[in-house]
Amino acid sequence: MKYSELRQDLVSGDWILIAPGRARKPEEFFPKKKRVKAPKSKCPFENPESAGGGKPIAVYAKTDIPQAAQSKEWRVQIVPNKYPAVIHDGIKVKPIKKGPYTVIGGVGHHELLITRDHDANFPGLKKADAALVFRAFRDRYSTLLDDKEIAYISIFHNWGSSAGASVYHPHYQMIAVPVVPPDVKHSLVGSHNYFREFKECVHCVQIATEKKDKKRIVFENDCAIAFAPFVSRSEFEVRIFPKAHLPFFEDTPSGVIDCIVEVLQSVLKLLKKSLKDPDYNFFIHTTPIKDKLKYVHYHWHIEVQPKINIPAGFELGTGIEINVVDPDEAAKYIRKK
Q: Are 238 and 334 in contact (CB under 8 A)?
């Protein structure tokens, strides 16, 4: 790709500026400093309950069946966030007016999923433990569905300080909120509009296009695929989809979960090698938890965003992201490493 292009996202309708003429050498994207490992002796997540995190919500030890009691042999545990963004303490979701503004109480759940190994982030986990992380997500997600005041459950992972991780020990977060977040709403509306016009899932169309082009695929197996989107918002962005049309994360069969986990681990290993261990975020995009029949057109997926660039004046002032790496070249660079 020689010249800049403005590309319109097929789902959101947003414009992204792909500007390879501004690109630097790949080495210039590498972290400026090596990752500093925090000492295990002072880590609050070695024993979350004794560090003041409260009693565990679910503990996974020798099996994939959760228990409520602490165990010396724990592999994964879900605990309340000590500093929650939202709380579930008698607050009611009832919109009120403050002048011209609408306000809703910050009701919800904010929880951490912590893995045992102090130094093993997601690509470093054993396959069984990585699969257990996603099965635990699914277990807890399914439990939170019973809360009538919740509209959406966000599941995400911050790795590294520039990605927002305040504790080195690998951990994952679930935040359940009483509203549908704006980015999710844009995705839902855009995918619905596409389905209404073309009678097809827009994400299934994207998957078919990537499989036909074969340029931007990073990794795939029998039931999941990862690719650098044609309209990538940021450098080296990767999205991971189940190949089958699955609208709801919580209804995903265990076999498909295992496929997706394999792809996610593989992508993160490739990013670590190719970009020299960057900080990153990954998050799950799925449907709201209410009125599920309205969202059968949707296709849940994972987005992986390495922390490469900081949005500046143009991006903040216009909402148009500038990506200086052609997604074709990004996928090729990731794969070859």
A: yes
CB 224 within 8 A of CB 260: yes
Residue 233 near residue 321, CB atoms below 8 Å: yes
**The pTM is what?**
0.94
Q: How big is the CA angle at 239 (ends 233 and 240), to the nearest 5 degrees?
A: 170
Q: Which of 287, 299, 192 is nearest to 239 (CA)?
A: 299
Helices in 105-219 by DSSP H: which ranges?
Answer: 127-144, 182-198, 202-213
Contacts of 159 (CB under 8 A, 6+ apart): 121, 122, 165, 170, 279, 280, 281
Please tell me the distance from the alpha carbon of residue 330 to that of residue 228, in angstroms, as a whole number.
7
The secondary structure of the chain in percent helix, strand, coil, rounded to multiples of 5, reads 35, 20, 45
Highest CATH level, class, for 5-336: alpha beta
Cβ contact 327:230 at 8 Å: yes
The predicted-structure confidence for 231-287, as pLDDT tens digits, reads as follows 999 999 999 999 999 999 999 999 999 999 999 999 999 999 999 999 999 999 999
Task: Answer whether 128's CB lies under 8 Å from 251's CB.
Answer: no
pLDDT tens for 188-247 read 999 999 999 999 999 999 999 999 999 999 999 999 999 999 999 999 999 999 999 999
d(CA 115, CA 167): 13
Q: Which of 271, 232, 3 is nearest to 121 (CA)?
A: 271
Single out the residue of 337, 335, 263 nearest to residue 302, CA to CA.
Answer: 263
Q: Dihedral angle at the C-alpha atoms of 47, 51, 55, 60, nearest 10 degrees? A: -20
Query: What's the rounded Cα separation, in Å, for the pair 225 and 210?
Result: 9
Amino acid (1-letter code) at residue 125: L
C-alpha 87/C-alpha 92 separation (Å) is 11
Single-letter amino acid, residue 96: I
Whose tokens are 């997500």? That residue is 137
